[in-house]
Amino acid sequence: MIFGEDVTEEKGENARLSAFVGAIAVGDLVKSTLGPKGMDKILQSASTGEIMVTNDGATILKAIALDNAAAKVLVNISKVQDDVVGDGTTSVTVLAAELLREAEKLVEKKIHPQVIIDGYRIASRAALEALEASAVDNSADPVAFRKDLHAIARTTLSSKVLSQDRDQFANLACDAVLRLKGSTDLSHIQIIKKAGGKLSDSYLDEGFILDKSIGVNQPKRLEKAKILVANTGMDTDKVKIFGARVKVDSTGKLADLEKAEKEKMRAKVERIKAHGINCFVNRQLIYNWPEQLFTDAGIVSIEHADFDGIERLALVTGGEIASTFDHPDQVKLGHCDLIEEVIIGEDTLIKFSGVAAGQACTIVLRGATGQLLDEADRSLHDALAVLSQTVKEPKVTLGGGCAEMVMAKAVEHAAQNTTGKKQLAVDAFAQALKQLPIILADNAGLDSSDLVTRLRQAINKGLTSSGLDLLTPGGGIANMRELGVVESYKLKHAVVSSASEAAEHFEQASAFHRDPSPALKSDNHRDMQGELKGTATFKPACNGRSGIPNDLVYEEQGEMRDPSGRNSTRMKWSRRYMWRLSDSSLSVWFVKVNMESSKESAQDGQTEDLPDYIFHQLRFMDEDEGEKGDLEVTDLVPPATASDEGETAVLFARGSHLCIKDNYETTYAFRVSKGCFGCIHNWASSHVVEGPKKSQRIVNMYTRAP
């Protein structure tokens, strides 16, 4: 095998030890969030400064940066658990970590990894058989089955931010999922978050609610709606200030151009009207002119619906998203009985009632803050996902550590029938299962050794419905079925099987390879991928503006290489801008070269750089004003060295602009010598980009070359 120049390799015991340490660290990170008394974690983004408060295992693990390969595998397992079942993300991570902790002890005793794997497989089979034997299926009795669903939702929400109102939200989740009539497609359930009020003010509304408003001077109520859902440009009848370049020799010709664009827009509206609709919902903007044409035709128009919103709307109304309108017979329209504007809090929204998909509904979440609503959304989604899977696989089992202790008992019995060193591995699996109720009790601040010992005694006596009662002061052992502490069988099965497979996978690892090089990466396969390295330089602009010395040509040059090593070609890249400085502002322009410059200047290497069109205009602010601005710039401030800490200051420049359809919020931060702007020690730039196909933050850090 041939590795890249920066790749490191770990083999044998070192590889396994690395896997154990990384996975155990991840398990220890999230185990404090497990159970109804688990703690939340506050996460702050290093790039945007955004705050998130959550105890959801998958959310926590996706938000942290990891360098250990085994830790990343556990993160992926947690993500799969979240995608497939919707809950149990912390449990699967903690159980996998505990299995590896036990495996580490066995490795120290010189037990071969393959023996441990064989023992874990025996134990896993015994545990899953015991879990299935203890599961109950009440799907034949609708009343009992709904009671099971309600109990599962309560159990899921007991460890979430919605725990204080878990009965109310359990009912909401049950009502919403049962409307799906056996389907697991949660896209029919819309969740809308509106700040204000209390969590207990949340409610379920039949139909579909879109967080938009109806066009100006159009009816706010429409019956028997025929809906055309579209994703098309309805904003081309005006020449835009940004993103447009028009070459004319008179203002009259510019007016003629706009008139022609209006006629094209009128023809487009006529093609849309030919579909026989009375409601038009568009993903993109609808400018005043086409909106007025729709109003005159008696068509309700709704603009700028987010893409997720129109996809759901098309789904629940039975329509399809259209982009062209030349063949009305090939376009599938949506239908609903009533469209009307409704007010939620202080906001106006649009409600679609009597939709084609009768199972569609909307849950409106109310709460004091955006962070609270986001966590409530994640919590409710977990409950909905678990319930939808339970409807498909209706078996249920008991929580509160009951299922884990029942499985541990079965595994211990299997160990007695296992010979040789494998018996130690089977016993180790049972010890890992027992750690889950121990962690539940520890997180509740109770005496875990006493409680778990009593629970084990109860299970061994045949009281197989016993579990930990963590909500009673001082704790205790109680009948979980009577308390309604019920969990999905599919969830528990996925936790044990996934954690066991992960532990076996790490035991089999003989080597890990790591490429430490930082790289430019994107989830969009069309984006350029690779590692960027290079230099940035400033030089005075040679453009004949002899009286204005503050025109600078800024140029970046470097190389990009494919971090995967599949392509050895290094691509050279460069970009140039013109900076224009004044006492209060900085403007950045795209550059063009004057092709008519003299041959003499070209031969001297002094080509004339001219500003083409403006990229962004920024206003200078002092350090205090920058810290208090609308954008979070704390992480953008370039660090000072110990020698110049008291001699430097940070100067901010900020602005916003529209580039085609993408909005840029741009911030520059310069660390300069006090009283000398030209003496730049280092600087950074940030572009927060939001658009129809973009949502990203680009951060660049620059340091003066030695």
TrEMBL record:
Protein family: Belongs to the TCP-1 chaperonin family.
- What InterPro entries does this protein's entry cite? Chap_CCT_beta, Chaperone_TCP-1, Chaperonin_TCP-1_CS, Cpn60/GroEL/TCP-1, DUF6314, GroEL-like_apical_dom_sf, GROEL-like_equatorial_sf, TCP-1-like_intermed_sf
The record's subcellular locations are:
Cytoplasm
Q: Does the keyword Cytoplasm apply?
A: yes
Give the signal peptide, or none: none
What GO molecular function annotation could you give as one example from this UniProt entry? ATP binding
Question: Where does it primarily localize?
Answer: cytoplasm
| Cellular component annotations (GO), alphabetically ordered | chaperonin-containing T-complex
Q: Which Gene3D superfamilies match?
A: GroEL (3.50.7.10), GroEL-like equatorial domain (1.10.560.10), TCP-1-like chaperonin intermediate domain (3.30.260.10)
Which keywords belong to this entry? ATP-binding, Chaperone, Cytoplasm, Nucleotide-binding
Q: Which SUPFAM superfamilies match?
A: GroEL apical domain-like, GroEL equatorial domain-like, GroEL-intermediate domain like
Show where the DUF6314 domain sits: 524-704
Name this protein carries in UniProt:
CCT-beta
Q: Which organism is it from?
A: Trichophyton rubrum
